[in-house]
Specification:
2 copies of one chain form a homodimer.
Chain A (H helix, E strand, L loop, with lengths): L15 H16 L3 H14 L18 H8 L4 H13 L3 E6 L2 E6 L1 H11 L1
Antiparallel strand pairs in A: 1-2
The structure holds a DNA duplex.
DNA sequence: TTTTTAGTTCGATAATATCAAAACAATAAA
DNA sequence: TTTATTGTTTTGATATTATCGAACTAAAAA
């Protein structure tokens, strides 16, 4: 559904559904705009690649579980900061995290990545 | 060229060339993290698509020239702000701008977009 | 039950970003 | 030459973000 708007003197067609998508995209890009967070995101991604060699990843110990713990070990920023960053990645829908007991697992949200790539086409 | 670093107690392999790329990527994402700037970027992109119909773009008047003027007309933010935003997009290498006389032309830097997409693979 | 481990939330602070107004520079038009 | 038009830079006010440490909660281990 498209809502078109014409402004005096210009062909100012605004597709509001696109505008919505833009604000959403901006949020996603913002989540990736901090280097630490980007690294964190990359780590989560790498953890998923079970067969990846350590030297191909940014992680200290590939595998999918205990993202939080591993992040603490790899990056030297405080735990509270890591908690904040992970939350922001979740808010942008870039990753999904679940906690069972003391184990904290994160995985990348592939559909969202697809959306972003589509925008960059 | 890879420089690998091992930290006591962890398999903390850091590929510094990747780290460099990360900081660069973060910069790019930061440039796209502001909604106004993202819209501006999208407009520049759309201007390039000569055959695009008005309703398919975010621009008021498709075509590649006078980006600045058009941006001012379409988005109601001040000229100084637009100047700042365009500069940031340029700093991130996302667009290239040239000025001949009063005409201001911008175009998207496709190689950089490719880099970003590669990261998101 | 007590202690450790794992992660969250709060409060403070420093750094950065956003944006506009005003002064400025360069080009084009009158 | 004078005046508009275009865009830049500086300045400054305000808002947002990054980050830490400390206090806190919940689960697991001792």
């Amino acid at each position: 559904m498209k809502i078109l708007k014409k402004v005096v003197g210009f062909y100012n067609y605004l597709d509001y559904s696109t505008v919505m998508k833009l604000s959403n995209l901006a949020k996603i890009f913002k989540a990736l705009s901090n280097e630490q967070r980007l690294k964190l995101f990359r780590m989560v991604y790498d953890y998923q690649e079970v067969n990846m060699k350590p030297e191909e990843t940014l992680s200290c110990c590939p595998g999918m579980q205990k993202t939080f713990t591993k992040a603490c070990a790899c990056m030297n920023i405080s735990r509270s900061t890591i908690s904040h960053h992970l939350k922001e990645l979740q808010n942008a829908d870039l990753i999904t995290c679940t906690r069972n007991g003391q184990t904290y697992e994160c995985k990348v949200n592939d559909e969202v990545l697809e959306e972003v790539k589509k925008f960059l086409e």
